[in-house]
Prior knowledge:
- Chain A is of the alpha/beta class.
- In chain A, 38% of the residues lie in helices and 17% in strands.
- Chain C folds into two domains: 5-56, SH3 type barrels; 57-94.
Amino acid sequence: MTALALNDLYDRFRDPATIRAFAGLIEKESKRLPAPLNIMEVCGGHTHTIMKYGLRQLLPESIHFIHGPGCPVCIMPKERIDHAYILSQQEDLILVTLGDMIKVPGSRGSLQKARSEGADVRFVYSPMDALKIAMENPDKKVVFFAIGFETTTPMTAALVEQALKRGLENLLFHINHVTVPEVMKELIDSRDEHIDSYNNRIDAFIGPSHVSVIAGAKIYEPFPRDYGRPVVVSGFEPVDVMEGVLMLVRQFVENRCELQIQYRRSVTYEGNLKAQAMIDRYFERRELFKWRGLGNIPHSALRLKEEYAALDAERVYSEILPIEEIEDHKLCICGDILRGMAEPTECRVFGTACKPSSPLGSCMVSSEGACAAYYKYGGVM
Amino acid sequence: MDKTVTLAQGNGGEENRTLVSELFFRHLKNDTLQKAEDAAIIDDGRLAFTTDSFTVSPIFFAGGDIGKLAVCGTCNDLAMMGTQPKYLTLSVILEEGFETRSLERIVRSIKKELAQNGAQVVAGDTKVVPKGSVDRIFINTSGIGEVRVPGISASGIEEGDAIIVSRDIGRHGAAIFAGREGIELESEITSDCASLWPMVEALLEAGIVPHAMRDATRGGVAAVLNEWAEASGICIEVDEGAIPVSETVNGICEMLGFEATMLANEGTFLLAVHPDDAQRVQRILRDFPGNEAAAIVGEATMSYPKKVVLRSEWGTKRFMDLPTGELLPRIC
Amino acid sequence: MCLSIPSKVVEIDRDEVTAIVDTMGVKRKVGIDFIADEVKEGDYVLIHIGYAMNIISEEEAIASIETYREILEIMDEEERRRVIEEDDDCPAVR
Lengths: 381, 332, 94
């Protein structure tokens, strides 16, 4: 192979023959596994790939996927969605956020509902669009409701930087950025507690990889080292995921416990230092942050540093933003699903009262949510 | 149902169907209306009658404009029922301040497209409303024609029928997204907006009687296949690798996280025909410029009645469901 | 928030800190704040919500693709051998 064409970056990693070849290798080598293998794919993007390409159908019975909470929309607690709702109702305020947030239900309804009732809610493809909206509406306040894991945090940081550079006074931020390693630790800790009632212990992880493009594979080091769980950082194409599974199978067969990078074309150990520096310049860790269905997880989320308080919508509007926690719908088992303790099909309201068009819990709303993925792709065998 | 109407209910998918059946059908029910075909068959099967409204934004897009669309939309609905479009009505609602030059451009488009179908506008209406009441221009057209070949219906598909798509899919939806403000893309994607009657006429003249035909407008190919599976009580199995999608549409889908089967088309249709006719249909369609990618994509079976199954190129299967929700670019 | 797609850098604007990228014929302007020092025209990058996150390593991509090619060749060879062996066992057919 001489030069790399752009199409190769898609085609070669979706090639049916290669997918089948990996399926064959996994089938063969998994026969030497000492025990059934439970792999948690943390990231919603991986869940999506597994479901969309039907990869479960290609794997032997001994390998089992446990879906993780890697969907930053799904884990947003109702009370914080309510913040977005309340802010959108303020006069002369434009609430700007990324696509999927529009449909997530808080206790008062979703932002889509707020918009149909007259609130100025705008979804954007990129945080940079929020800048444009702020510059075009100098007499209004624009609040950017920021969501996402480490992959997305630098973009919000870049927006903060732009706002400061241009001396924009009407662009504020409601920060809901969360981080992945802390929730992975929490999942191991809480499941290990329940080892008797739930047989599927998380044996290994397929690590969120676009998170690592920014933060580096280094963030997963504690898992093989301190928790005895191998991590393979895998890309999102079906060949990437299959290769990642094979790498884990080989670790278990050979009794190794390591951090490996499958997605070598985009992930390095160190990550993007420039992006990390920009995040560190504007954000700091919160002591606690509530994850929907999982409870409070220490140091798992970010907020703007004290010196940028003037841009922090949570501080500026603290009087109107309630902090009481809100219970989820009684029948919604999103919490168990996010922990990987239950599958969407075990939920009593899955597909009936809770569907993408009328979601009760956020796992159904976000296209990365396990419930939405199952609803869309889960049908066959 | 919600207390206020949401954008999702205009999507042509699940929410739209619910609104129509729980509100409109409930009060206005009659046998003809509830058939919910592309056009109503009336006057003892002799005539087909249909209506459609057009609110597309932007009104001028690569490959067409709201005028061309207003004619194609209604004429294609008639063509899908084996009917040559003959007479149209044209109702226009204009926003105060709309440029007359743009209006003229639109009317000229309408004229050109009518000629493609051999149809005429015989009645019309024009209203002007205050600024902000409509987005520049909204158009409604109704169309009527004589049924040339009766019995073409979503409920007429039989086990073993071949499922054919007339060209590469998703162009109109992709072109609209590419042209919208806020999502700045620069690409050569053009809408597939076109009149289908000439192709349908060619098929009928060759002695082919499709069991079902439908243009894949709102909700895309996914909506049509699901409606067919439901109406005929069969399973439609489709090979993912056989569905033609152009590279540019693929690019837009990758970028925004869409699936081409959910995107709207305005000049692309699906047919269910007896398997013996499949090759001939494909040949006839491919002769029409723009339709070089016409393809046999699957067949009707009884594996999972009322569902649509997508077969991947590496041997796995999944269901292709009705699109839901407002079509928003996927972020995650 | 993982949806990110490979695109090719077509044109760079150093003053604006942006670049035009091409994804299968669809061109878009993206921010290059995180890769400004290293990025060159012709590089492949991953785009996420309007920004380029990194520069894709062509070397690693090619290495992966080569590995897959080798796997396919080995599988093909095994498949051929298996078919031949099956044939030997098979009672006369044609």
